Amino acid sequence: MTTELPGRRGGRQRDPATDSAIIDAVLDMVAAGATLTGLSLVTIAKQAGVSRNSVYRRWKTKDELYLDVLEAINKRRPSPTGADTRGDLALLLQALAERVADKRASSMLRALNAEAATFPRLHSRYFEEIVTPRREAMNRVLRRGVERGEIRPDVDPDLISELLVSPLLARMASGSTDQLDPEQASRRIIDLVLDGAAPAPN
Questions:
Q1: Which of 43, 54, 86, 114 could form a cystine bridge with 50, CB 3.0-4.6 A?
Q2: Tens digit of each residue's pLDDT (9 = 90 or more) over 143-198
Q3: Which PANTHER family is this protein grouped with (predicted)?
């Protein structure tokens, strides 16, 4: 499976095939047990079958490369329609579940968490640029649910979003993702959480 890099950096036009080969090399090696600290740009270039200069021209540091790897495994954020709270949440949560179920993606995320102290800037940028926008999108859906009367107004949207993502993050942290069905898991979690947050029947 080839991983495409979202367009983020400006400058000279780059060959997408080379970008993908380098990113795939990182994901393959991390999934096989390599650590982020242990990898070098030279080793990554060799695994990708490209020259060292091809890597160095694109990324001056491992932090820069790893951030692009993290962007590549985090699909572009789905766009909720605003028509249905459960449907919009399912759209967002399933995107997370798909990343968790993907062995290479979940291995990369576990490696990032395990080595956060070694890569503090990378860890911080990952949350600022990738996690936070997705969390804000989920909170907007939840606030609309409150406005529609589908969720009790006394329930904190931040708490609900944490309850929604925590089961998936726990599966990722433990590595027990082989039997995970992203669509089914997402809908079950949403039903359990929203049923508890729904207004009492009149």
A1: 54
A2: 999 999 999 999 899 999 999 999 999 988 888 777 889 999 999 999 999 998 88
A3: HTH-TYPE TRANSCRIPTIONAL REGULATOR RUTR (PTHR30055), TETR-FAMILY TRANSCRIPTIONAL REGULATOR (PTHR30055:SF148)
